[in-house]
Design goal:
333 residues; Protein Transport Mog1p, Chain A; 2 domains; six-stranded antiparallel beta sheet
Length: 333
Amino acid sequence: MDPQIPVQNVQSEPVTVPPATVPEKPKSNNNILIVLFSLLVVLLIGSTGFLYYQNMNLQKQILSLKATPIPVASPSPIPDFSASWKTYTDKTNNYSFKYPTDWTMNSFGALTDPTNSFSLSVEVNKTSLSVTQWKTNKCIISGTNFCSDSFSSSFINFDYDYIQYNHPKSQYDSIDTLVAQGNQIFDFSLASINPNQSAMNNENTRQIYDQIISTLTFAGQTSGTTISNEYSIQIPSSWNGKYEKKSGQSCDTYTFIGKTMNYELFSICKESLADWTAQGNLPDQPSKLASSGDNVYVESGPLDVGPLTGDDLATYENLYQDYQSIIKSFKLN
């Protein structure tokens, strides 16, 4: 038996465990963030204030522009090119026009330009034809069926019915302007005097020709007043060239001049008061205009438009709208 080895009770000493080392956290950047945030807020507030200031200034400028009237330049008066021109008057046919002082009147009653290259003549024709029909007949009779189409001029601006066209004639050519007035057509022809010179292609002379035509007036038509020996009435200037007055023994008849036919607009007649009363007319008859001594003046208009059609019908109806005002303007002289 083995000898027992004495076991000593060894008192163990407590082991001291060092506390765990926690790594130290880095210092916070909170201060920097706070500064940056503060700067951002300041910038935002500053930008907002700046934009508000700019907006207020802009509104003030807009209000100032609205309140301040913008000066508008007055248009310069258009100079009268014919102010110093001479005036030609035809008392027989009751028309006149102006022409340049350097144009001369020759022995044939025609105007000649300063270069003696072109001549302007006027031909007056009594006819019931329209200007278009007159042009067609003239071209056929003269053997020049190739007359140009009608054209207009920017210088001519009046109420008369007119057309312009080029009229070739062998070595000579002309520009013709046909103007209708009553039962007459006025033919203003600018013709070349020398062969192979074209009035149509001479821009300067052609412009002066158009300006001459634009000054055309007819005596007794500018005021809009039509006067007979015994009475007067006010006829609008828009009627110029669209009617004619025919005087009979006791009646004046005012007739519409159409392109295809003529048609009565109205008439003013003088009757004896005894005859008029014997016909059963009353003193306050609507058709009675006035009375003077033993006579009475009465008016009458057509009951319908008859056979008028197309452009003639439209023009006639426009004229007839002025009928009542014309009749109301009646005055004894």
